[in-house]
Design brief:
2 domains, elongated, 3 helices, 78 residues, mainly alpha
Length: 78
């Protein structure tokens, strides 16, 4: 958890947002807690267990070309 807290401190500093140790710890627990809704299992392709066909279509329309450009996918057939 220390590395996550360090990353949050760096982000807050970059944004010139003052946060005390307690606030950083609370934010880290909320964001990085394994039971958090933000992060699921952290497994490769774990999203496939949670995305419906509608989610996939919406994601492709919003970021599909970016995924191809960045090399995550070769085309939209995924």
């Amino acid at each position: 958890m220390a590395s996550q807290e360090s990353a949050l401190r760096a982000i807050a500093d970059h944004l010139h947002v003052s946060r005390n140790k307690s606030q950083i710890e609370k934010a880290a627990m909320h964001i990085f807690n394994t039971s958090s809704w933000t992060f699921q299992s952290g497994q490769i392709e774990g999203w496939k267990k949670h995305f419906t066909p509608l989610h996939i279509d919406e994601f492709k329309s919003l970021a599909g070309s970016l995924f191809i450009e960045l090399g995550y996918e070769k085309d939209l057939n995924w």
